[in-house]
## 1
Amino acid sequence: MQILILCGGLAARLMPITKNIPKSMVLIGKKPFLEHQIKLLKKNGISDIVLCIGHKGVQIEKYFGNGRKFGVNIQYGKDGKKLLGTGGAIKKAEKLLQDDFLIIYGDSYLPFNFQKAIKFFKKNNKLGMMTVFKNKNKYEPSNVEVEGKLVKHYAKNLPAGWQAKKMEYIDYGLSIFKKETLKYIPKNKFYDLSKLHSLLIKNKELLAYPAEKRFYQIGSFEGLEEFKRYIKK
């Protein structure tokens, strides 16, 4: 299945590291973070990639090109001068997308079995799926309530220390959508992906797939250092 990686944000939390480079190009060892992501995807049998780029995105395009050097095929969706948010960036890349596609964030590293998640999605015939991890507020505030196979509630960007008894899970950072869901996203307007998640939840169309291993992210200095230690191991 095709995958879209969202790597067009401003990465304000990693300033001044990201003053002159996009977050996906932050070096981990001697390789950009995005190269570690692509290596993981290829290992999981995923080689058809769309990169949604924005802030300093020309550096990503110059380094990765069409992906052949890394054993994958890469296409590019571009925000242009106007930042469109995560959902808006996906809508802008609509013509590049297949009928079903995965989405991950450009600062997330997800060590789990992608193919099992894809099989779960295809078997249960819903418009979308969110991978979740039973976090219990351990790494970040839990923000997802699961009921059976479906996401019942989802709240993005919760404050530190926030807790709700029914929200034991956290958004793991991987979603799968049918292309027809993009009809809900307006063209050339700022739109956050969480709005699409919420719409599908309301319509009982968002599956919840539980991941067993924790995720890693480089969206903060703490997460960046933790991922560096993980990769060294």
## 2
Amino acid sequence: MDPSIIAFLVSASVCLGILLTERWHHQASHDFGGERRKVHLEAVPRIGGLGLAAGILATTLVYRDFMGGIVNSLVLCALPAFLAGFQEDITKSVPPHIRLLATVISAALAWAFVGVRIDHTAIALLDWFLAWPVLGFIFTSLAVASVAHGFNLIDGFNGLCGFTGLAVCGVFAFMAQGAGDQLVLAMSLVAFSALLGFLLFNWPFGRLFLGDGGAYLLGFRLACAGVLLAARNPSSISPFAVLLVLAFPAFEVLFSALRRIRSGRRAATSADHGHLHHLIY
């Protein structure tokens, strides 16, 4: 069976199971509306990231030889980010700076053990700094963590984060196929299919949310896929093309931090109601 079909079926099955059993876990798993930064009013499960994680994990385990060691290792590297986000989904008590630190740790692990490294940007001065291992390590870790955090910031409307992820997966798959990069192509298609399984219940009626764990996992995986795509195909893939594909979540992080700092009323990591999708709503 095609790996993408496995990812879709497992993700959809886990998401359906969450909804069928929500009366037994709703006190822990539901996101109760009414807060200033939220636009929904009813209680909705926010652990849909379990479906995404299950789809990716099942595919990795079943096709571990086909997927390759890099993909297998990325699953382990993603654990700090996913678990910190999932703990927030359940307890609603994990501070934003702790979750951000967890995504930095995941990015650092990917740099050290998988080779997810930004070492060229086509900007001569920046590339000179990135040639220093310590600076390259810091830059890559912060860049990957920022994209992961950005996907969490845009997870505010039914389908917004999920369809953004689908778009990124689709473009990365197209770019990887053109470059002949089967690894990133497989990563993108598996994530695309697992997201489809989740979106069956997320859009348009909002029966299930991705949650912090799912958003961090999605953002981390796509950030790593983008870095690998540019690093493995420097002659055909521009780093700026990857940045353009990830522009929405990346811009949301920068814009949100600057807006909060400028306001002087909130810390840069505090939640508010001024994100782009909130303003459009």
## 3
Amino acid sequence: AIQLLVAPVLGIEVARLEISPEGILLLDRVNKRYVQVSFAEISAWAKADLDYNILQCLFLNELFLPGKARLEAGDAAAFRIQVGAEQALLQVAAGRKLDYTFRTSVLRPQLLQSDIAVRNTAYGLTWDYSEFSELEGRLFPQHMLLAVSGASTPLSLDMKFSRLNV
């Protein structure tokens, strides 16, 4: 499971987000409320195949292919790749309703941005990664910014991590 704890003052937890293969659990400690939803419900609501693997890869700053638990060398053929001087753009060649695009550094092993767009609409999610530091022998972003496009009002979530552990 992936757990995100919000403890802004003196380490007192005010909210917790837990993502597991079964679904998502959000606890609001201040107002004593919670919501729990399965990935089947989320997929039905979003009218797209969403699962734990996709969210895990987004939070762990990893490339992914929908429906695959782990990427292998042979999966490179599933991506259209454009390489520039400092960055590469990888696009999933065969998505169903969603288009997936990843922007990576060619100088360091870093995923800089993941984009998920609903094909032929203005709706999408952009997930930016920055402020990388070493965590268990690999570079991991200490700052993630999520932005939703296509909504009537701008939606974003800015996460700056402290005390990361595995």
## 4
Amino acid sequence: MIFIITIKRNLYSQFYNFPMIVYLFDLVYVLTQKEIKVRYKNSVFGYFWSVMHPLAFALMFYLAFKVFMKVRLEDYPLFLITGLFPWQWFSNSVSSSLFVLMDNASLIKKLNFPRELIPLSSVINHSLHFLLSLPVILLFMYFYDKSPSLWFVLYLICLFLPQFMINYGVSLVVSSLHLFFRDLDRLVSILLTLLFYLTPVIYSEDMIPHNYRYILYLNPISGLLINWRRLFLDEPLDIHFMLLSYFYAFVIFLSGYALFKKLSWKFAEVL
């Protein structure tokens, strides 16, 4: 109830005294702040859990593929970290968006505001966690004698934007459809698992047979993961995958937004 009152106070004051863009930014800020508070409520270690999760998986994959199966990839721990952290950003954004509209049902029923801001706040929440995990990756880079290039920040922004748009577009789709198909969360879980193994996260794209290389171009996440890894390993980015990533980003975002707006008028009825 306190949160709803805060939203109303911000909504009325911003709407009548400032431009609409300021009101929208304020609303996104409040919603994102709520997402962060809910995530870390009664959490002792807080932020460290989001870092430990990919690190634990990196350790597991290192033992399985490097120690036991003897995969011939140099600096394999760093190789894993540079793929798992961007993947976790995508996976967590999509998974959490499934229930984000249900968790804010009282807001949707009582207030009139752009509903797409709710999934946006969830994606921003996970985007902040990804940015906060960058020092961990940089620490691994230092340990393996890798140093960021002079264009590191610029390239980081160039990769951040399309992944943010993809995460947000997919989140708009799954958050809206889950209200009408309540077992969608099980299907999304299966699809994320399949997509993980079809994306070069724990293996190099060079290990894929030539007959199956087309999968890299059909997978909207592959190009991003490849270029994230190239960025952190101080290798030149692949411009073809970069352009493909931006193409997928615009298509997925526009499609997700169109579907969300088409279904949004029914949200209050089905919640």
